[in-house]
Amino acid sequence: MNYMTHTIEPWMPVGATKPKDDIAKIAKKQGWMTLEIDRATQKTTANNLTAHLTPSDIVVHQFPSYLPLEFEENFQNAVQQTGAKFIILIHDFEPLRLSERQNSEREYDLLKRADGLVVHTSEMADALAIPIPTFILGLFDYLTDSKIPDRKLTQDLIFAGTLTKAIWLKNFPLPIKVFGNLPRKWSSDELAPTLKLEDVLPQDTAPSELPDGIGLVWDTDSSENTHYFTYQQLNSPHKLSLYLAAELPAILPSFSPFAPFITSHQLGTTLDDLTQLPLTFDYDRIQGKKVGQALRRGEHTTTLLQKIETFYS
Description:
By secondary structure, this protein is of the alpha/beta class. It is about 30% helix and about 20% strand. Helix 2 links the parallel strand 3 and strand 4.
């Protein structure tokens, strides 16, 4: 039997759990069982999650669960003691994003002791350099049944996501619509007058509710201890999946692993620095629809799960 973990955390902000929710849904559709981890009640011991496992089983764990690291270690040990394969599917790996990360060595040890890894990109695999079977996810899927409107190409800039990684918004000189919550440490008085702050959209219908425009992908460091900017060389931004699922063109860093894909398929363009905005580019509507449909149907995750099943069968 194949299992996909799914951390239950209903108090999380709107949209924060969408990537994990979608992967769990796609896995279930493919016949995988869901192994639910309730953050509110789960203890650091993990035997309650593994008693039914057998040596022929596969457990793909969506990491991190944001439970204590002791739980992550105990869960991995408990799964592997049954003889089942334990594969870590990385959503974010904080030692790559934060300097002086306490317990980084223990987090790397978790990866090294796993039976397999799922990472965003080949660049992330190279950065981690863990010598175990490694699978590449690529773009995160973005499930939705909502109908995408017929899009009109406009130069309106859109940003959707966590504002704490987007300090640049405070002084951004161009008009932009921002869909996100104002961080606690930010004051509305600090925001550029060109910024129009909109409510966070419902995660399952956001692709259909985003207005026409161009989705911008750009993170900056919030302190000297963060590496959000350089992390863009490795990661698969969920906001990029949202824009593409919404059939909107996107602008992302030229050093992103997805820059060649975006430009070669005429789905947007890239930039080295925000001062290069505004930019003009050609957009292929047919490709936009094709890629958007694939993301809304969960095709990337489906392919990944099939590769895992084949490898460990």
